[in-house]
Write a structure and sequence with these properties.
By secondary structure, the protein is mainly alpha-helical. It is 52% helix and 0% strand. The chain contains seven helices and no strands. The relative contact order is 0.08.
Length: 148
Amino acid sequence: MKDPANRLVQSLFQRASADEVSVEELQQAAGQYPYFGAFNFLLAKKLQDSDKEQFQKNLKRTSLLYPDAAWLQHLMDDNGTAQVQMPDLVAEPVAQVIATPVEETVADLQEAAHDEAPTAALQDSPLPIPQLTIEPVDLNAPLVFEPF
């Protein structure tokens, strides 16, 4: 195991390298903290070369805990390289933009807004406002929930 796994082992187990941690210790830690992806990752990494059947089972469980499958694969491959493939960009013609004078557009909008102004009759009619009523509350009464 290389650098990411060794750094995790140093942080979690206070050991120098991942080779110093046994499979049993990792299984116990992953069992005690099943939703902590680092223990499951370390266990999968440890089982990768030794037990292929257990590795496949643990890798499925570990992949559920890592939201980015590509990142988990990068960590499991342990090669330290990444290749980014950029698609070939094809230059497409850009549509021609027709410019209109801003003054004409603003004037048209102002005229349209003036034509659609509400009439004075609608502005003068008051909306009915319900009256506020204050009722006494019995503080000793039990709380009752009545559904609608």
